[in-house]
Amino acid sequence: MNLDKTAKKEKMEEIFELFPDIVARINQKAGSLSGGEAQMVAVARALMQDPALILLDEPTSGLSPKYSEILFHKVKEIHDKKGVSIIISEQNAAKALEIADKIMVLTLGSIFLMEDSKNVDIEMIKEGYRI
Question: Which residues are 29's β-sheet partners?
Answer without folding.
Answer: none
